[in-house]
Amino acid sequence: MTVYPQIRTSADLLKSTIRIDELIPFLQQQQAKSCAMVNTKLYGLLPFMFQLKKAGIHPVAGLTIELEQTEQETLPLVLYAKTNVGYKNLLKIASSIAIRPNETLPLRWLTAYAQDIAFVVLPFKNQQAWLQPEAQEVVQALKEANAANVYVGISRVNGVHPFEVQAVELAQRHQLQVIATHESLYMYEQDVFAYEVAQAIESGVKLNDRDYEQQYDSHVLTANEWHTRFSDQPNWLQAAEQLLASCQVEISLNDVYMPKFPLQQGETAEHVLQQQVHMGLQRRLQTEQLPHQYAERMHYELQVIQSMGYSDYFLIVADFMHFARDQHILTGPGRGSSASSLIAYALEITQVDPLYYDLLFERFLNPERVTLPDIDIDFIDTRRHEVIEYVAKKYGKQYVAQIITFGTLSAKAVARDVARMFNFESETLEMISKLIPNKPGITLQEAYANSENLRKWMDAEPIRHKWFQTALRLEGLPRNASTHAAGVVLSPVPLVDVVPIEQGHDDIYLTQWPMLEIEQTGLLKIDFLGLRNLTILDQIRKSIQFTHQIELQFNQIPLNDAKTFELLQRGDTVGIFQLESDGMKNALREIKPTHFLDIVAVNALYRPGPMQFIPVYASRKHKLESVVMPHPDLTPILQETYGVIVYQEQIMRIANVMAGFTIGEADLLRRAVSKKKREVLEQQRDAFVKGSLKKGYTKQVAQEVYELIVRFADYGFPKSHAVAYSIISYQMAYLKANFPVNFYAALLTNATGNSDKLMQILAEAKANGIEVLPPSINRSVRHFKVENGKIRFSLSAIKGVSQPFLQQLMQARKERQQPFDSIFDLAVTLTTAHFQRKVVEPLIKAGAFDEFGKDRATLLATIEGAQKQADFMRPGGDDLFEGAIMAFGKPKYNEMSGMPEKIKLQYEKEVLGFYLSDHPIVRMRAHFQEVNATMQTLPTLKDNAYIRIIGIVSEFRQLRTKRGELMAFVTIEDEFGSVSCTLFPKEYEQVVGKLQEDVLLYVEGFLEQRFKKAQIKVKQITIH
Q: N or C terminus of the chain: which is more exposed, having fewer CB within 10 Å?
């Protein structure tokens, strides 16, 4: 039998290219008895352990480390966990290494965690460091710490090592056993080149810059190769087999580590939770005496939560939510199934009353299927970290960590990375990017099969085939580690007892295992999510408070506001959470919501599959067709959605009413049916029909309703999530309808950096009668702000204006307490350290200096004069300034003739990405009465509609057809956006040779929606 003591896997981030799914079949083929994974971190350990065990191969948990000898020198060592105690020590060792800056381990730390760990000395690594005299004390120290578990590992890479005799002598001198070993870094001999490329990607050193002295022999050996290499030392092979067999670690998947909420002595979490919930519900309902249905639901939920042992969890979540409220950190109304909990509502974890919306607690916590509770919380994305820091501080650094996530080499990424290592030119890299489609999840094989251009390009040069084969071998490998966007883990015991950790950000640790593996360990994970729309809501609220002196409470916004529903019925939903896509706008226009529950329904229905029921919902709502119920008894369940099954909760209610299922059983039915497994479907059908017969329904009715459940199980959306997120949608719609100027200002601030988005929002704001004031050096700030019912343009949105400059400008304005009255005044105040052409020029071009009363051409010509003035004047020296003016006269502008309007607009487009002054098209519209579309209306038009439109050419590309005829692709833009126009040879003939950028075109043609983008197939074209 063969064993593999030193396998490094691809989880070790480009230090190996061995994938577990390739390794296991190979090991089975070699009839391997056991295999040890020895990565430099414990990345990938759990999948390795579980998958090998499932394949009938004994897995061993190992680690490769560098032991500190001196500050500059280290000793290479492989560790194996021999027992569960050793495994826990391995977690601690891996964590200790990963939180140290140089990722090495002091000897005293290693010996402190030595119990039940086997040490394998690697004598041929690091210039034979273990064979040096100064290393002998370390060997002795290891032996003293763990006498029976120190080994010397001898490998025969490219034959017998020149220092093998000395290695054997080392073992004999210290009475250590020798084992045969071999470090495997790639699967097969032919993978060596792909491995070298992976190493190059990791180090960033291109292949032709690398030192090729090292002769790799690091593939996974066959059983035959093992026995051939060590045919003279079969006892070393046997020793390796015995060592690995002695490593017996059992990782439990049944443990649950529920954190504890800190309490006063004598208190219990159950009692404190009960008190907080009761008081919270009284406060919510504004009554001392709870209504019967609320009291009953409260007691039921508390009983389930307490029986599952989750009281502490709810107290923990309620506590950090209380912290967020105290710090005025806006949180979401709820997310996912937690919105169906009355306890969560009472504790102000959510803002959704589940009884009012008929939300089922079992959709969140099902007593008949015990799972860890999963409360995901949305925070404004700019302050989410404050809440995580609070939790880490409250429960202790060693008990709280963020969760790691791994980035992989996707098709496009690996293609470009490998091409870079091949030293391909930058033009070639661009070509590769274009040849591989942008389709999410596409593989290189798919790209090759579907792209004739890619195949032709590869066939042109042999090196390109080598590039492609190398990229194929590396595709999908983990490349880098980063922090999960939301996941935070909280433990009642130090995390290093359960999971390895490493250094994270903001002094909060990071787990070495990703989300799925964290959940397998039984640790509790809470998702702290940053939601940009909450940030926008918070900005609007602050803006309203500043401009209207109204302190808006989002939870008190009326859900029946007429202006809000008028806006939704028009589909005027740009900038509104979840409702701004063109399809969603059409759905809103069709449904014409009149009640909050219509928004909930449209949020649940507008997805692939159920969106086919939007017309049915709309027709029935507007009494254009009659409401048909599957059975009269289901009317109370389905009347809210006009007989259409929209929500998972409706499926559960149907099973409860018709088949007598408990709500918990109904949740199991919903889960089972959605998986579409035939035998499960039949089992559940039998149970449903039997239950229905008992309740007096006929077999036919029972089967018909069950088929309906099967049909809708895929479509059903959790109502709890739909309600919670629809609250955010409604709140944003309310603000847009009632405080439009504040709404658009916040929207523009959040679109800064995306000139297309800014242009669209500005165009819509102007179309709604909102005036946008130009940027001003004295009045503009970093964000778009509301000024006397108008929007003042932001300085941050001007390209080339840096944040350090803005910081200096804001500080200067604050200290001066009076506006700048000239470019010279500004230059002297800021000094030449900050008043530099690269920043001042974009400000002038954007119009931020117009208030100085000088033409922009004059201002541009005066920059150097202003800099000289600033050089001459001492900042802040008023007496000197006055004296200078008396001596030399007031500084003068370099007067120029007025800047032509066309140049002025071009400059605005250069520094803003669009025209801030009226777009040239606006003035031309009056001359084109026949025009029937703009870039704003295109998305609302049907495919193949015949349109007439005007626009200015922003770019065009001429090419030849297969017949050799000329055609062109032209992009035209108006004040709302841009569109691509296709000119086939016949149409292109009308304008060939005359087409150029910045000319005005009148275009007629057919509208096409391609890849969700509008395009025009031109039939008539005129240049104006």
A: C
